[in-house]
Amino acid sequence: MKFDEAYSGKVFIMSRPNYEEAQAVIYGMPMDYTVSFRPGSRFGPARIREVSIGLEEYSPYVKRHLEEVNYYDAGDILLPFGNPGKSLDLIEAYIEQLLADGKMPIGLGGEHLVTWPVLKAMHRKYSDMALIHIDAHADLREEYEGEVLSHATPVRKACELLGPENVYSFGIRSGMREEFEFGRTSGMTMECFEVAEPLKKHLPKLSGRPVYVTIDIDVLDPAFAPGTGTAEAGGISSKELLQAITMISESDLNIIGADLVEVAPIYDHSDQTAIAASKFIREILLGWVKR
């Protein structure tokens, strides 16, 4: 199945024209209806695609060229503006179709709540899956100002769905006291402030398992990624996130899908956030899509 009806007019660099032959599918989730501070991440997927034209097709990190990976950019899912419930249902149905067609989903956000319906669809196919969550924020609230559908809740929902022992969070440096208490006592793994070194320690525990990876761009310090809705000082560098992505590439994890969320281009007129995000997507394509 093709999703040409969702095509936004721009594609990620070297995207192939044939959906049926693709190993992986890039798709956008342009939703930012539940954000608690600054909106604008619904424009992230399009801008990540647009700036990807500046990338080299070769990665010296994994020594592969984009011509070696067959991927299709399906554009953005057409989501009803202002209706998070229906939008999440549409995303979930979209992922179900991708999985039925044997494609690896690589999502571009959008606010972080968009990861939740993806996880629901993935879990139906991979009941023993684990989640790697790389973010500045814990996202472990049960609700935000009375709203259970919030960009502050997806990882708590993931713990309830997958079991907290199957959720691994890295880079966390912001959240309520109760969220950090949950991280310490629930059985999940929560590593604060750093990503690469603690990830290296935990990767052997996930050996051979199906793993979904979600990356919030705000794990980076605002010096490296100012274009995000909820920037948080004290983050990691672009170099460290690239190291983490490469570690996963070199591991024996079975990466079943990934997303990168919360790029909000309006707050970064230099495009350094979108440019970094597009490079991370290149490395995900080259390192995580099965050879």
UniProtKB/TrEMBL annotation:
- The UniProt record gives the binding positions of Mn(2+) as H112, D135, H137, D139, D216, D218
Pathway this chain belongs to: Amine and polyamine biosynthesis; putrescine biosynthesis via agmatine pathway; putrescine from agmatine: step 1/1
Paste the cofactor note. Binds 2 manganese ions per subunit.
One GO biological-process annotation of the entry reads: spermidine biosynthetic process
| Swiss-Prot/TrEMBL keywords | Hydrolase, Manganese, Metal-binding, Polyamine biosynthesis, Putrescine biosynthesis, Spermidine biosynthesis
> Cofactors per UniProt?
Mn(2+)
| Gene3D superfamilies membership | Ureohydrolase domain
**GO MF annotations in UniProt:** agmatinase activity; metal ion binding
Protein's recorded name: Agmatinase
